[in-house]
Amino acid sequence: MTFAKFVGALVLLLAVNPASAADAPLRVLVPAYAQAAVTTLKPAVEAQAGVAIALEFATTDVIVERLTKGDAGDLVVTSKNSLAPDAVSTRVDSQHDVAVSTVGIAVARDAKAPQLASSQDLARFLRETPSFGYSTAQSGRHIAGVIEKLGLTDVMKAKSQTGAGLMGTRIIEGKLAAVGQQISELRLAGLTNIVPLPDEHQLRIVVTAAAVKTGRRAQDAAKVLEVLASAGAAQAYEDAGLIPLKK
Question: Where are the alpha helices (DSSP H) in 133-230?
Fold first, then answer.
């Protein structure tokens, strides 16, 4: 096929199938701790912004990696602190803080909910629980620091499990008695018997939605961000175990 014939065939193909970047859904990268909320909000976002979106789920570390490589789609929802380094902040445009994620401890549905009103309560619970799990992500690193601060590193070493993903599923599978993770992730795993960490040991992660500089259709991305940051989105964040920043 000559180059002229190739160009002619391409023009004909575009005429028959005129889909373009303007018709494609905006790609939105979302971490597990915001997955339930953003999934719930997807129909409202598309209706109010008039823009189709396609959700992709990844860890915060992967989202940051894809931002630095220029392969993060059109928008990201991630932790505010993950966007702070220069190598990442230069990859995004407008940002909207939408919610706060906190850490809690979950036990099985039929187990007695732990009393965690104080540091002493938390230490007592950790000593008494037969097994405990936490993730290798930010919340898990925080919990490991709390355990060390309480002087329980040696006590917990023999009965603790760590891993990636939704650690709460190990309670459902009968592999662990208790798990510490972001509350929204514990809920995503199907757990409901969840108690927040005491205030003095709490981790508060600001959840931020941001437009990617290399993304398409900046005006459409701005419309999506507006819906995600609106008071109308508050219930979805709350139902998912997050604290909405606008009500």
Answer: 138-149, 153-157, 169-172, 183-188, 218-228
